[in-house]
Amino acid sequence: MKTKTETILIYLKVVVLVTYIGAIIQGAAVMIPLIIGLFTDNIGVAYFQPGEKMSTLKEVSFTLYFFVTTLIIAKIIIGINIWERVRCILDDVKMDNPFRTSVASGIEQLSYSILSFAIINIAGDFYIEHLNKRHEVLNLDRFESGFNLLMGAAILYIIGQIFKRGIEIQQENDLTV
C-alpha cells in the first residue's frame, strides 16, 4: 500500500511531465517565428502574440530585434531546463532513501537554473524598459519580475544544502552502526 506522500509524488510527476511538454511546445511556438523573423520579413504574427511589436522593433533596428530575440530564446531554453530538472529530481526521489546525493545535486542545479532565469528576466526588464523610453513607438511588454525568482533560487539553494547535510549525517550514522 502506498503512503499519501508517494501518491502525491505520482500526481506531481504527471503534472510536471505535462508542464514540461507544454513548455517545450510553447517554446517552439515562440522560438520558430522569432528565428524565421531573423532571416525573413515575416515574424509569424498569427502564431506569436507579441509578433506585431517585434515586427515594429525589427523595423526600428535589426540589432535591437536580435538582442530581444536572444533574450526571449534564452528565457525559453532556461525555462524548459528548469522543468527538465524538476522532472529528473522527482524521478530520482525514492521514499525509502530520499536523502541521496543525486537529489541534493539536482536541487542545487535547479537553484542555479532558476538564478539564471531570474537574471535573464531582470536584464530583459531593464533592456525593454530602456527600449520603450528610447523608442515610444515600440511599447514592448516587459518580462516577469526576476526578483521573486532570486528569492526562490536562494531558498532552493538552502534546501539543497540541507539535503547535502542530511546525506552527510546519514552516512555518519551508517558508519557508526
State the shape: elongated
Distance between the termini: 29 Å
Contiguous helical run count: 5
**SSE order:** HHHHH
Share of helical residues: over 70%
Oligomer: single chain
What portion of the residues fall into strands of 2 or more residues?
Answer: under 5%
Q: Into how many domains do the coordinates divide?
A: 1
What's the number of extended β-strand segments? 0
Biggest sheet architecture? none
Mean pLDDT: 82
Q: Would you identify the regions where 5 or more consecutive residues have pLDDT less than 50?
A: none
Helix and strand content put the structural class at: mainly alpha
Radius of gyration: 21 Å
Defining key terms:
177 residues, single chain, mainly alpha, 5 helices
Description:
It is a single chain. This protein has 177 residues and is mainly alpha-helical. The protein has one domain. The chain is built from five helices and no strands. Helix 1 (4-39) packs antiparallel against helix 3 (62-92). The longest helix is centred in the N-terminal third of the chain and has 36 residues, at 4-39. It is elongated, with a radius of gyration of 21 Å. The two termini are 29 Å apart. The mean pLDDT is 82.
